Amino acid sequence: MTDLSRLTLEQKASLLSGRDFRSTKPIDAAGVPSAALTDGPHGVRRQAGTADHLGLDDSEPATCFPPAVAVGSSWDPQVAARIGQAIGREARALGVAVLLGPGVNIKRSPLCGRNFEYYSEDPYLSGVLGAAHVRAQQAEGVGASVKHFAANNQETDRMRVSADVDERTLREIYLPAFEKVVTEAAPATVMASYNKINGVYASENRWLLTDLLRDEWGFTGTVVSDWGAVSDRIAALTAGLDLEMPGTGGTTDAQIVEAVRSGALDEAVVDDAVRRILSLIEQHPSGTAGFDADAHHALARELAAECAVLLKNDHRVLPLEPTTSVAVIGTFAAEPRYQGSGSSRINPARLDIPLDAIRAIAGDVRHVPGFTVPDAVAAAAAADVAVVFAGLPDSAESEGFDRDHLDLPAEQVDVIRAVAAAARRTVVVLANGGVVSLEGWHDRVDAVLEGFLLGQAGGGAVADLLFGAANPSGHVAETIPVRLEDTPAFHNFPGEQGHVRYGEGVMVGYRHYTTAQAPVRYPFGHGLSYTTFSTRGLAVEVTGDDTATVTVTVANTGQRAGKHVVQVYVATGAGPVRRPARELRAFAKVLLEPGEERTVEFTLDRRAFAYWDIRYGRWVVAPGEYRIQVGENAARVVTEESVDIAGDVITLELSMDSTVKEWFAHPIAGPALMQGMTAGMTPEQQAQAQQQQDQLRMVESMPMRQFAGFLGDAMPPAALEQLIEAARAGA
Fold first, then answer.
1. What is the pLDDT of residues 527-540, one digit of tens each?
2. What pLDDT, in 10s, does the model give residues 138-176?
3. Distance in angstroms (rounded) separating the CA atoms of residues 450 and 43
4. Where do the DSSP E strands lie in 330-436?
5. Which residues contact 629 (CB under 8 A, 6 or more apart)?
6. What residues act catalytically?
7. For the chain: N or C, fewer Cβ within 10 A?
8. What is the pTM of this model?
């Protein structure tokens, strides 16, 4: 590494912000090269010349792989890894040191305009996929930048809104995916988000960037800002933000130098940040390796087929036979929607058109462009099957703004309804970055294939799925609600007057719907196949006070090879906090030939049973009963076993501010308190006091400081203090 003693303060400060929009500053005299940072995560957006952060200017051609919304629905870390590996190769070939991604923010509301860049509403699923992507990308020599850290769950007012979220919710929902990626995959960089967290900008939040990220999780890489996210450079540097992007023309570099010269900033803080940036540059040098564009396009088609979700397939209308006459209806059949808008927008090296791919398989295909009802009805009535390509246009969802509703455009709904009334069979193929409402037409059609956004080869993948060359194996990673009003964040999204209150707490996504027993159109984890599967032989072995192993046997009981997603949930009422009805704690995607069965084993570690205890500021496993459930999805459990977990033995430390209930429940102080209260009573009075214990419920929430006045001489303050000391000594 470059010797810092050879660098002037001005040179060191220069390394802490970008040279321009996409690269760091070089120091030629010290042999420090520039490093290019480029958007991802589903492709390389390498811009030559004019650069921007909103996808407005073209970039060099690259493979556009399925975005995270699709990868999340694959439920397959191998899909995430193969994409990470491929874009790592392309990034090196294009001279990129750091590719910005993946995004692991939680889908708090289906309205978030950037949901297409995120995997899931579940932190465990998101963390597993994100870690797989990072490991594979960095194995190719290109650094990753897990983003957007943290609680960046909306686009509305994103540059300044304060995400007001309690500690338990942060720890259980919005931080675990980042934690898993950081601790298991060691990303080269972490990107600090635009928003504030409880009133403090993420880029200036020392608790977030240093106490949590570095000290607790052990992150040793570089913290980089989202583009333009720094409002106070000195505060950000002090908090732990190393690299400000993009460049500021030297303005903030001069502020750093001035702060050091004046004594307002310790130069050691500058040195630490510089060391991390130099390490980043040295570990991820610009590469020149090539890649096989044809192979990557074929890979994109293969993986896209893994991601699409067959939501509905009545009468087994799918897969279609090549001899079937097909009416293909809708703009998206010829002009596909395959990625989101904004900073992740890729200039695809090539693009598969769904209509062309269908025509390459089927002999009798008629296309009706647009969404004109008479033409669509005429074509549908004359065909064996009508396939309507519907979804959201680019203008409906993008980085920079959130959606107002979940509805498809009205003209599309009109066509779907009319076609369904006229056609023998109707299939709807959807293309959208965030979930859309299926209401008003869902029950009228025979099949729904939710493609989300499938990348440049999605057109071929859709044809493969429609005609059975590929078997659908995707499962939704986000609940599809019946109504927007049913979503847990409805009353608190996107906030007001600079604040968004995370009032739903940990009850995000399926955690809310399953706990409230609220109806949904399709639950988290739902997905159909062209074959069938069975589950049996669930066994759970407790392997410690807070760990267990789970084995279960799954079988392909149908006639086609297919992939089955085994979903393991944990349910409990143990502990002093409200727990969701169930939480995803393990999963695996298993390929099975017809008639094949396989036993799958999972390890449930401490975190699978833990909740975040705000009193102790740590993860706690409450002793009690835990139900290990294998679910077809989050709403339907197919088998379960109960086990007793010893958990953590924690005795609450008492004080005069502890409640009466806490005092009487304490194993040492409780009996002593009762004995002291009844010491002067006759046997008859003691028996009566025991019988009247239920009356204590009226005062059980009263702090002992107030309740002591009712005890009088039976338990004077000095005696209570002695009990506090005895309880502390015996803990």
1. 999 999 999 999 99
2. 999 999 999 999 999 999 999 999 999 999 999 999 999
3. 22
4. 364-368, 385-391, 426-431
5. 568, 569, 570, 571, 582, 637, 639, 640
6. 226
7. N
8. 0.95
